[in-house]
Design a protein that fits this description.
Blueprint (H helix, E strand, L loop, with lengths): L2 H13 L19 H15 L5 H6 L3 H9 L6
Helix pairs in contact: 1-2
InterPro entries: ACP-like_sf
Protein name: Acyl carrier protein
Organism: Candidatus Pantoea formicae
């Protein structure tokens, strides 16, 4: 499975959304992306890509697109 497939799968499973909406998906676009959902997603990303996100990056992770940019800092190419 490619990194983009893994990344998308985390969003689809965590927030129970269709993959087709991910490109424009942002924090609180659905009720499931709340603070608990956010930390669930962060934990899944850290485990999947074997990284440890810094606190500032966790806070700034506000959309599917922004997440891709943040993961680049950790050498995760999406």
């Amino acid at each position: 499975m490619s990194n983009i497939e893994k990344y998308n799968q985390i969003f689809v499973e965590t927030f129970e959304v269709d993959e087709s909406i991910l490109e424009n998906y942002k924090y609180q676009d659905t009720p499931s992306w709340d603070s608990v959902g956010h930390m669930t997603m962060i934990a899944a990303l850290e485990e999947t890509f074997n990284i440890m996100l810094e606190t500032d990056d966790i806070i700034e992770f506000s959309s599917w697109q922004e997440g891709k940019n943040i993961l680049k800092k950790y050498a995760v190419e999406i």
